[in-house]
Amino acid sequence: MKIRTVLILVVLFAAVLFAMMKQNPAPESDQAFPTLPEVNYQAPVFELNDLMGKPFALTKGKPVLLNFWATWCPPCKAETPDLVAVSEAYGDQVTFIGVNVTTQDTMEDVRRFAADYQVSYPIVLDETGEVTKQYRVSAMPTSFVLDAQGVIVYKKVGPMTAAEMKRIIDPLLTRGGS
Amino acid sequence: MFEATEGFQLGPANVPISLIAVVMGLAIFLLWIKKGEREQSHQADRFRDLLFSSLFVALLVYKFWPFVENYGQLSVKPSQLLLYSGGAYGWEAAMISGVLWFTYGGIRRKLSLWLTVEWLLLGFVSVRVASSLLLKKVGMPTDWWGWTVQGQVYVPMNLLEGVGYLLLVGVYAWVRGQHGVKSGEDHSHHMTDGIITTNAVDASQFHKERAALLLVGVGLLTLLLTLGETGRNAVIWGNWTLAELCGFVAIIIGGLLLLYPIRYKKVDN
């Protein structure tokens, strides 16, 4: 048998072996995972004040949709009714958080916006712009979907449609938020 | 080297480095086709045109897909289409459209099958090399050398990927050189003997073999690299992530293609 044929058979065998190993689910690892504002990385944690001035922290335990927005941004205005509708449809199963980039907004405008669009999910105020910088948000709206372990599973720059939100969130709920 | 999230600010637009890497990889690949494949210049021109038109079709579908998904909402306010792109299945729709357009165009323009597959895979490798050299990617935590993020050292995945793909390019170049020698030997044999019928190497078999080699290489690298990744990639089927599934399928198809020896075609002079 030629060396070439042997090599090919070894590679094929290795691939099949890999496939057989994949039959067993990988054990849950508690190793440290890098924190970066990118898909498959741990989401940076933060604590900001909400519209009432109460501290609000990003926590693990259930899926989260994190939406960075501003009142002057037309795509944010287009997206907000869908965010409100989808957040109400999921109820307590999913946490929706609107992070207002307050460095580019006024408190008065933020309150008026929340009232006009009847925003029912928490709005937190990034008054120093630190969290926006931490998540490297360069355009608005930018949304991140996190699983129950706080890992970013989806990132979208630009408005999301209701169907898009559901498509990302539903699998997180069916597999127990992980 | 840049962080995955970095970009260049061009006026109001932010151009991500990941996009620049793709453009750079494609540009290097197309330049190589132009300079290195002169004997295939007609095929190369058709391939390049088709590649660009397919990318354009995919881009158009991605942009207008929300209109398909949310016809009711966007038909009332068509101006909102300016704001939306993608939607729930935008990527899939764009990719399928691009592939279908490329396949249709390839058949219509009579592109050589194995040469096209070889070039597509080379284009992919070129883009991966450019991305791995430009963009930092971290994997599992390690005690060895790597990228440091918030005090913890992580496996430098992009460097491993870069080295792997450059090795693959090296093996590809060597095999290509061997094929060139074989082709030349056969040709000289034919010329010196002056026989009427001889065994001439069918060029498409060489393209097929090189395409198969690239498939196995890309598949193998994809599977090996998943071992060092964060392990947080979403599974799409059983315990398989998309990358693992694609890598496995690529190895099996490429391996089976390689198991068939080069066939010599009888040429009557």
Instruction: Going across the biggest sheet of chain A, name each strand in turn.
Output: 2-1-5-4-3-6-7
Number of domains of chain A: 1
- Which radius of gyration of chain A do the C-alpha atoms yield? 21 Å
CATH top level class name of chain A: Alpha Beta
Q: Strand sequence of the main sheet of chain B, in spatial order?
A: 3-5-4
Q: Tell me the CATH architecture of chain A.
A: 3-Layer(aba) Sandwich
Quick tags:
heterodimer, A: 178 residues, alpha/beta, Glutaredoxin, seven-stranded mixed beta sheet, 36% helix, elongated, B: 269 residues, alpha+beta, three-stranded antiparallel beta sheet, two-stranded antiparallel sheet, 8 helices, 9 strands, 66% helix
What's the layout of helices and strands?
The complex is a heterodimer of chains A (about 180) and B (about 270).
Chain A: H1 3-21, E1 47-50, E2 55-57, E3 64-69, H2 74-90, E4 95-100, H3 107-116, E5 123-125, H4 130-134, E6 142-146, E7 152-157, H5 162-174
Parallel strand pairs in A: 3-4, 4-5
Antiparallel strand pairs in A: 1-2, 1-5, 3-6, 6-7
Chain B: E1 7-10, E2 13-16, H1 17-36, H2 41-69, H3 71-76, H4 90-108, H5 113-134, E3 138-141, E4 147-149, E5 152-156, H6 157-193, E6 197-201, H7 203-228, E7 235-237, E8 240-241, H8 242-259, E9 264-268
Antiparallel strand pairs in B: 1-2, 3-5, 4-5, 6-9, 7-8
